[in-house]
Amino acid sequence: MNTPEALPPQLSESAYDRRRLRQWLTGGARAEGVSRRTLLRLLAVAGAAAGTSAAFGPPAAAATAPGIVKPLPDSWFTVRGTNAESRFASFAETGYHTPNERFFVRNHTSTPVLDADDWVLTVRGDGLTHDRSVEFTLDDLRRLPAVTRTAFVECAGNGRSFFTTQQGQTVSGTAWTLGAVGTARWRGVRLADVLRRAGLGRHAVDVMPRGLDADYVTADGANLGRVRRPLPLAKALDDVLLAYEMNGEPLPYDHGYPVRVLVPSWIGVSSVKWVGDIEVSAQPLYSPWNTDFYRLFGDAHPVEGSAPLTRQTVKSAWEVEWGAQVAAGTAHRLTGRSWSGAAGVVRVDVSTDGGGTWRPARLHDAPRRAGWVRWSADWLPRTPGSYTLLARATDGAGHTQPDTTVHNTQGYLFDAVVRHPVTVT
Ligand SMILES: Nc1nc2c(c(=O)[nH]1)N[C@H]1C(S)=C(S)[C@@H](COP(=O)(O)O)O[C@H]1N2
Ligand SMILES: [Mo]
User: Fold this and answer.
1) Which of 205, 212, 374, 412 has the greatest number of C-beta atoms within 10 Å?
2) pTM more than 0.85
């Protein structure tokens, strides 16, 4: 049964079953009038199919996260609640662009499995010339000029755990290490084109896309409604896309199928997935995602918080396992990546002795706005023992990673140089 011809149908069938299973688990299946017994039987069949597929699919031992559709193999992901962090070390096996199957997932609730044929985007609000409501189907979007753009999506909380492990500070939120980031080639239409077609008025100031995923309910039980965050019109008209493709494929369910907003260089939450409507407003808009969240709070910041966060800061990460064992007396080529929301990275300095001595890394990509650069450094450790690798990037706007990041209670924008332990044996 494992003949080459038999493989594709089996694969797609089990992928389909897995998807149905997850839909069911996340409450996405309609099951009125179906007995619990029947559902349990369906569940068992789908579970068995998911098990079979592991032999053919991506690496075995795929974990699951509640509400995420794609498989999450242990070698690629660390599951954190409803989210999946990419293992940065495993990016060494990838090229410039992060494959869709390996891209991190950050879900406030769970992935809705939407049907592109039923999908419509509604644009409305008093920032339009006639305060009317204009609808676009996916075909309507596809008829507009297509634009392709390479950009990273990075969670504002990427690196958050280092506030605690490296600076001894308390922060709230998902304890990401450095893998809440990925870079993809996005294809879609300019948000500017859609807004103009909808009749953008002269007085418009803010644009607020909203997701079609479920209402977000906090741990305290407060219903904050659907994920939505205002975007100043200037950014909306600049380089923002309504993306329907990721790395040459339709957007995967987990990354916003059929259409997501893509806001290059800005914190990940701006890039609203599964966008269903966009409010265009003549007054500034607010949502919990630009008032309570995604501002800096804490001793060093104003009581009402900083201004809403926009661009990402500078970061670097080694493509080396955390605590890796490295042989003494052998030359090693260590690799990593650096990126910034302000400008392309132009320089990366590395240290293999805990910051005692530094040397420039070799950059393998030209500085790219909204993208990262890959780099490498050769290392010949002579003496066994514990070592700390450091990488410090500088972007074209002159920002260099600091030694420490000023604390904020929600642990956003950690940009300090990370101390990466390895053991030489
Ligand atoms: N509708 C919707 N959009 C969303 C989110 C969400 O939960 N729902 N999460 C946001 C956050 S916080 C991040 S970091 C990015 C993550 O994008 P990814 O899951 O495609 O990596 O999506 C953003 N867009
Ligand atoms: Mo995020």
Assistant:
1) 412
2) yes
